[in-house]
Each structure stands twice: as structure tokens, then as C-alpha cells.
Amino acid sequence: MTQTNHRPTTKHHGLSAKTLRRLERASGRLASASVAAMERRLPWFSRLPADQRASVLMITQTGAAGFVDWLRDSHEALKLTTEAFRSAPQDLSRWIGLRQAVGLVRMAIEVFEHELPAFAASEAEQAALIEGILRYGREIAFATANSYAAAAEARGAWDARLEALVVDGIVRGDAEEAVLSRAAALGWDPASAATVLVGAPSSDDPPTVVFEVRRLAARLSRPVLLSVQGSRLIVVAGGPHDEGTVREEQALGKLAVAFGDGPVVAGPTVPSLAEAHRSASEALSGLRAVVGWPAAPRPVRSVELLPERALSGDAEAERLLIEEIAQPLEAAGTTVLQTVEAYLESGGVLETCAKTLFVHPNTVRYRLRRATELTGRNPTDSRDALVLRVALTVGRLARARGLW
User: Where in this chain does the record put each CdaR GGDEF-like domain (predicted)?
Assistant: First the structure.
């Protein structure tokens, strides 16, 4: 009786030991072919730094070798495929986004699907290889997503803490070098102007507040730094230096939607983050005083709240009222100053003011226009009239105390 020698086969997905050995020897070539296809078909891939492309090749080689191990023992699939990403440099995810990574995986799988059938010894093995690469590709895709999710979660938690430190440093006026360094780590453009907005958060859940602010900021193409500090939300909004006043106010108005009920105060727009403490200081002062102006717009600039801030004891507001209103009016001469005072005392009645001063009403109009040019405040506007009245009062009190 003649004994026939049969080649031993494995139970690993219906593939013979010989086929598995051939696949193992060819894993490096398959990985190189995959990377070559990426360079041909993905323009952004060829623009990556050389070390990042080498990292992708290393991951692909590890994945190709892992495929053979997976065919031998599919129960270890998750561990083996995840190893490919654990060995990658930590900053790879900063260069390659999740969608791009998934595209690389898809392309590698396509190359494998094209090349692997040639290694099969039979149609049954060919079918087993195709099925195997599809299942393995699914495991690789899950491993990719898990790797990026873990990196994003860790980076997000660290970024959130760093962002809170930056905003807290701006509010407290910490050394600008430390604030700028931390802000740069978060991707803040040092050439960007900054405006601080303060108000109540829209929810008791900080992640919800953060999501809403960032959603609106993304729609406005504005960089933001934000922090929820108890019952107040502080947002530092970035923007270009040359953007017009109208567009700036429109953007701030849309961003104010992310705040909760109640007033929202915006500090002055400063040229850079290094000066953002001034914007924050004035915004917070305005938030404390805005209760004195129930009809204030939302958001309201802190400079529009100078009377309320001065009445609440804000020395900076008093200084601004004197420097920007009282002093220019006095420097213009007694006629302009007396006309403004008489107009305010007359309750805004032009004819009464003219009779008091023994001048023609047109003379009063001319002098009021002159006062508007000097101060930016129109005495015929009810709100501006209040600002002028408080400014002149603060100026008189400062002069009586010898401070001016």
C-alpha cells in the first residue's frame, strides 16, 4: 500500500503554512507598495515632512506583519493592530487628521486586496485572503479611531486646563510672557487683536457652554479663548487689526448669543493678547455697573458704561471721562463748554439755551457740533447727554480735590 504525502495545512482561515510564510516574507514589499500608492494618489501626503512619512511607513509595515499574525490567531487582533499605533510618534496625529488617517488605511487595504490574491495557492485560499483583509481592515480602522480618540481626549483635557490658565492670567494681569507662551501653545496668533466679553454662561454644564461658544466662533472664523468662572463666562475673541468697526460689532453681537440671560459687556478691542488685561478689566468693571442701565444693548461696550462705572467708584472710568470729555471741552474754550452746560441745564431745549446765552440758535447748533467733534458725544442724544453731564460733574469734583 502506497502512502501519499500530503502537505500539512493549518486551520488559520483555511490558509496553508506555506502561504502564510510567503505573506510574512512579502509584508515589507506590501507596505512599501501601499506608501508608494499614497504618494501617487494623495497630494497632501507627499507634502508631509520626511519623518512623518517614515512614521506612516513604519505603521504600515507593522500592520502588514500584524496581518499574518492575525491570520494565525485572530483572537489577538485588537492587541496586535493597536501596537501599530502605539509605536508611532505622538505628534503624528497633529500632522494627519482622523479623516486623512482613515483615507490612508483605505488605500493600504486596496493595495492589499490587489496584491494578496497572487499569494493564494487555490481559489479557496484566495477567497479566504480577501475575507481576511476586509475583516483585518475593519480592525485597523477601529484601532485608528481609538488611537485618535484617546489622543484627542488627552490633548483636549490638557488644552482646556491650559486655556483656563491663560484666561485667568488675562483677568488677573499676570506676567504677559507666561500668558503669551501658553496662548501660543494653544495656537493663538500673536498678531491677532483681542476683545474680552463677559456675561453669564448659558448653561450649568461647562462642556455645553464651551461647545456653543466654539460653534459660533467657528462660524465667524474667529479664534477664541474662554473660561467658565462660576457664574460668569469670559471669552477672549480674536480678530484682524484692520476689520471695520461695523463688522467687528456685528461679530461680537453674534458671539454674544452664546451667553446666557442678562447683560453681556465687551471691553475695548486691543491690538494684541499682551494688552488683553486692559480689555478684561474694563469689561468686568462694566459688568458690575451695567445694572445701572437697564436698557443697555447686548453686548454693550464698556466705554458706553462710563457714567455707571464712575458712579460705582471705578477710578479708571473717572479718568477716561475727564481725559476724553471734560478736558477737551475746557481746552476748546469757555464758549463751547458754557454752551454744552447751558444746553444740558435747559433740558435739551435749543431755544431756551440760546436765550440763556443771548446767542442765535444756529450759534448753539454750531457749538454743539464742535463739542461732538471734540468728545465723540452728541449733546442732543439722550444717552450722550448723560455721559457729558457725568463727565463734567466728575471733572469739577476732581478739580475741587486738586486732582486736575
Answer: 173-289
